[in-house]
Amino acid sequence: MKLAIVLSTHAAQFQAVAFKGDFETNVGRIASYGYNGVELAIRDPALVDAGQLEKVVSGYGLEVPAIGTGQAWGEEGLSFTSDDPAVRRAAIERVKSHVPLAQRFGATIILGLIRGITPPGQSHAQSMAFLVEALQECSAVAAAEGVRFALEPLNRYETDLIHNVEEGMHLIQRVGAENFGLLLDTFHMNIEEPSIEASIRACGERIFHFHVADSNRWHPGAGHLDFRGILAVLGQIGYGGYVSGEFMPIPDADTGAQRAIEFLKSVMP
Ligand code: LER
Ligand code: MN
Q1: Closest CA to 47 of 94, 8, 88
Q2: Number of structural domains, the chain?
Q3: Is 185 a pocket residue for ligand 1 (Cβ < 6 Å)?
Q4: Nearest-5° angle of CA 141, CA 212, CA 189?
Q5: For residue 74, which atom of ligand 1 is closest to its CA?
Q6: pLDDT tens digits, residue range 78-103?
Q7: Which protein residues have a CB closer than 5 Å to ligand 2 (ion)?
């Protein structure tokens, strides 16, 4: 089971400052703690020098298993389910623009908050129809390049659209694309799933990526989730992807990253 950690880099700093300075330092630290990969959050691939990025990451022997797209929602308000067709179109084009970068790294593209939230006055059914349409268009473009998309069920406090594996699997049926699956995150699962283990089994081969945080969203080992059981089930279903740490920098990012990998290795099957 390979381990990664999310590296949050704000797009503006990403290009200008963090990339050459902080970014490289952070990637070096992540490698020194024993991680195999680094999951990147990229607001706009147009702001990234892909060659430079690859040089830094591969220079430390790391892979990029997944690329997060949520900053485009957080910082620009782009969303698949906006009531403004221009915003929906911009979100779709932005997500499609991640495909060449993802193809270069063999990374899965994460669709979290960019799916949006139903705006006032729009029905949930209409949001779902927009979502299915956007996912079908994006999946078709990515399939041609061998790239996969993973939609992340998020808890009810972040969106009204797709909270759990059951809803996610129904969405997968509606989208009807082989390269479209789910990203499961233990923090959200702890809030929304009837049983984390049963939901992992139900999702099976459609688990395209996996996030870990403990019940309090601190590093694994700092809360009350049963990671020994969770990782055992992932092993039993033959999950061959990355387990990627996405948690709060408590007591600080470096200590959290070190404690997480130490703990995860101690409970791995
Ligand atoms: C992103 O992976 C995630 O888990 C969300 O909670 C971000 O808002
Ligand atoms: Mn997550």
Answers
A1: 94
A2: 1
A3: yes
A4: 85
A5: 8
A6: 999 999 999 999 999 999 999 999 99
A7: 185, 211, 246
Distance 59 CA to ligand 1 centre (A): 28
State residue 20's pLDDT score: 34
Candidates 170, 192, 102, 190; CA nearest to 139 is 102
Specify whether the CB–CB gap between 250 and 256 falls below 8 A. Answer: yes
Please report the DSSP string for 218-247 in residue order. SSTTSSS--HHHHHHHHHHTT--SEEEE--
Report the nearest-CA residue for atom 6 of ligand 1: 154
pLDDT of residue 239: 98
- pLDDT value of residue 13: 39
Taking each continuous run of H as one helix and of E as one strand, the counts in the chain are 12, 8
Give 185-208 as a DSSP string. EHHHHHHH-S-HHHHHHHHGGGEE
Q: Whose CA is nearest to atom 1 of ligand 1?
A: 112
User: Residue whose CA is closest, atom 3 of ligand 1?
Assistant: 112
Ligand 1: nearest atom to the Cα of 211 = 2
CATH code at position 7: 3.20.20.150
Reported pTM: 0.95
Range(s) of the domain holding residue 222: 2-267
